[in-house]
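tool_call: predict_structure(chain=1)
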Amino acid sequence: FVGGALANDLFKAKNYNVGKSLLSDVEFDTSFLENPKILIPIDVETEGPNGRRVCSPSEVTDDEVIYDAGPATVAMLSEYIKEAKTILWNGPFGNFEKDFAKATEGIAKLVSESTAHSVVGGGDTVASISQLGLIDKFDFVSTGGGAMLTYLEHGTTPALKALE
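tool_result:
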């Protein structure tokens, strides 16, 4: 599953209007978007001149900003979480600094109740689950999300190489 601000890049790659949402300037091969195993939000929470609303990613208007995944996305992911043996989570689903934290909270509760081995990385994600009082319900927690992903991709990190 790809959520958070990175999902905006995938929405744009699928030719959805992302309004004034945060986008990266990285170009990438979009062929993987056809893979049915790659999941993106099926609904989003936006904010615009008329306030907040939940809508399909295809319904975002030019003057809105996507800030969070919506409740249908959390419900969709709950089925995957229930069946998962391992869950690797890096990064919050929404902009919790702007009080868009419903998806992150919903997923945190689902993962904390899951029997899956749960690995969480990233300072913002750790702060979110800590604020919810759920941090002890996760098997492994690291504030170094980027380092964790580097280690998973390469089997080492620059810091570990320096210690060798």
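agent: The domain at 4-163 is CATH 3.40.50.1260 (Rossmann fold). Proceeding to next step.
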